[in-house]
Amino acid sequence: MLIARLIICVILLAASCSGISAASSRRTSRSSSTRRARSTETSFSLSGSFPSIFLGDEHMNNPGQQSALRAKLSMVLDTVEPHYSDALHRVHELREPKVASLLQELLLLTREGATGSGRHLEASIAPAGAEAAEEDAVGLRRRSDRETSSPKPPKPLSKPLSTLPSPQSLVDWSHKIGSRLAQLPAGTSFPVLRRLLTAVVVRAWLDGAGKRLTEVEEEAVSGLFVQLYMLHRRGAMNRGIMDYQHVSKSGGTSWCHAAQLNGCTTQRFDRFFVCGVSSFDDKVRWVDGAAHTRLTGAEPTRWYLHGTYRSEGAPGCASRAAQMLANRWTYYRNPLRRLASHLRFILLHYKRFMTAQVEEGVEKSADFFTTYAGANASFWSSVAPAISDNYFARTLLGEAAWHAPVGGITADTHLAPARLVLMQYDIVVPLESPTELTSRLLAFGAGWPVSYTDVHDKNITALQEMFDFDPSPHMPSSDEMDILYGRQQIDMDLYGLAVLIGQLDYLVYSTAAAAGVVPWDGMPDNVNPEEDNVNYRVACGLLRGPGGAWSSHMVHRRRRANGGAAGRETRVRRRSDAASLEETSRRDQTG
Ligand SMILES: *[C@@H]1O[C@H](CO)[C@@H](O)[C@H](O)[C@H]1NC(C)=O
Ligand SMILES: *[C@@H]1O[C@H](CO)[C@@H](O)[C@H](O)[C@H]1NC(C)=O
């Protein structure tokens, strides 16, 4: 079955995959520098913040909401299952021996674990040699790495994590977990573990009928959360590069722009390239060219690579993952809004493209107004299968699922693996969450004081003005939209998980902030992106890299483009040790 062959990687089927790294700055990382009290946050009470974060003020004492939250937390705990059933290979974090043994010991939640025998069960992982061999060759490995043999499946857990009781003593459990976390290697941020452990704490709070934790419990749990934040910070700093997943119409372009404003460098940033690394061959694959021709009689115009796989020459998942040593961060947006936004965007541009074909006398051309304009759900399903059917799930699962026909993505087969992929992103930012939350996620997750809220790229209103065309009247009728909306169940479920992940991370980051931890020394609370030298000051926040932002193997070129928020400054990155990332300035097809 196709899904069994899925591996963890970041494939950007929508628009682009990105290498973003620290900008040039004279400041080197001073990682020791973190505890600096911030007066505004001294009154923070950890468990006192649970109701407003997880239930919303109006639902604080609502038993129905509490049990819904409990069910979601159980779901989070069981997101690791596809790793043990071998539905997903290469869930790197869970194969890390110390993480693997902690999970085999059921997060120390069993009575046996709680007695603190200190027994570290042997993790059932692939022999170290196998992984090493694979990574050695990555520089040269190409797409054939999709077919490399899968690592040995891990031994299943004796019980699903959701079936375990809450810790008998949160204090003891926090201390024991803390000593295990202290043994974890640098270089990874352990997002899955962080979310599992936070979910355990919030569930324990629900078990206590939502009463505040005692002072000693607060202290022990806060210490654990600060430690989780330190792991994240260390992991991000050690890598110094971010691989973000661009989910179209969900803030992908703006993410790249925010990275630029925070002083990161990438291969290229402008309205069309959005941090794409050309050699990855990640292109826009929104429209099925053959269906377009069948339904309109016209030649395909743009973005018509649905059904066309990346070129054989482009680096595949394993080599890409190893080359990028990547963080994985992404925005999430309510899938129904994403869908409507996507259709409007295509209508806006296809009116131009198709009209141009007619005007240029292309032999096979068609009238936009009798084809795409006002088209029904079945038309859209044919020309844009991914867009009209669980786009997030397809994006998360990569090529193995992306090109499936409408209806080919099912909850039984795809939901659990997609959830586990989502859990592995270091930062997940739900676009519709309150600004206070999203700013915290960026400030503490990436160390970026210039937040997404300062950036509004691909603003549809501005585009409408530019092209003097309003696509709204040409959207499918509301009945037809309802058909399309009704199909996004798997994505809605994933979005629910994304929102909860955002809340769990917010809790950890807020605890760290209250303890006086700052992402990096000297980070301003906020900065005006219009200000001069902001990107030199911020230097990509946590992503300045282990050697500081002036790493010797990077050459930076600074170019100023005229006007336009989107292209103020572009830098080019070269890495002598990653020849395949060399930019080719090949024009991507994103615009
Ligand atoms: C949808 O529109 C196409 C024309 O594009 C038409 O052939 C088809 O019958 C319509 N389907 C429904 C269910 O209305
Ligand atoms: C989008 O652009 C319009 C017109 O240029 C502007 O009025 C509006 O505030 C912009 N929206 C956002 C979210 O930036």
Descriptive terms for the model:
single chain, 591 residues, mainly alpha, 5-stranded mixed sheet, two-stranded antiparallel ribbon, 7 strands, 42% helix, 5% strand, globular, binds 2-acetamido-2-deoxy-beta-D-glucopyranose
Describe the structure.
It contains 23 helices and seven strands. With 591 residues, the protein is mainly α. The protein has a domain of 213 residues. Helix 2 runs antiparallel to helix 9 and helix 10 packs across helix 22. 49% of the residues are buried. Bound molecules: 2-acetamido-2-deoxy-beta-D-glucopyranose (NAG) (2 copies). One 2-acetamido-2-deoxy-beta-D-glucopyranose (NAG) binds next to helix 20. The site of one 2-acetamido-2-deoxy-beta-D-glucopyranose (NAG) has 5 residues, from helix 20. Keywords: Signal.
